[in-house]
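Exercise 7.
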Amino acid sequence: MAKYVPDIGSKRWVIISPSRSARPDQSIKPPSEKPENYPICPFCPGNEAITPPEVYRIGGGEKDKPGWSVRVVPNKFPITDMHEVIIHSPDCEKDVDVLPLEQVIKVMTSYRDRYRAHEADGQVIIFNNHGFSAGASLKHPHSQLVVVPHQINLDAVSIEPFQNIVEENTYYLTYCPDFSQWPLEVWIAPKTVGSKFGDVGDTELPDLSKVLQTALKKISAVLKLPEVPLKQANVPFVFNYYIYHGVNWFIRIIPRAIHRAGFELGTGLNVNVIDPTTAAKLLQEVKV
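Solution. The predicted structure, written as tokens, is:
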């Protein structure tokens, strides 16, 4: 069971969760150096019995059997008492930046459905760690859903004004806020205000899936430009994104193109080496 420890002065919290240290870690060796007895992937089709019993799936087949397109299971090494893993597809390599758009729509649908399933339980956080240096412990692309009790104060930024627009479609805006804390940070937000992520309708999911995938492709392409010297921490393409838990939701994409160091940790101040206006211009112009 998770333990919550507050700091009275800052009203921030720490979650003590020793079970997380038992997670499998595929980041220790690259694929070419894996030993013959390297653990099989628990998220690949045919290995359903390795995970806890599934709680949701999109696709055919019996529960806990192959045939699924998206599969959701409880996390064996939870951060909190409610923690799920959303397996993006049967493919062990492709994430939402390169999956077929139809599959990305299924992933977004699962996000929305699982958010709705847990909304009454607490604050629902959905996030994707893509790449080992972004926090992933297993290679197979997946996201996670964590429920934090309502009484725990979350130290999370709220929606930022729509500045430095990169792209828009019927329902969503993609932009680089002036308050971007990371180089090439991108936010996606609905044009209408006052909604939660669980309010997203079926007709909006294709637009959301398209702008998310396009934003990731654009960021990846910009990072390959010779005039953007941010490759030391981002080869291959490594990123996080998360969905804001409350009213006026948004998706925040954070490319892990730099490392945070002592100054940032010691002051709480983030140093962004690419002006958001420049980032937006690069993202607008790059071809994907």
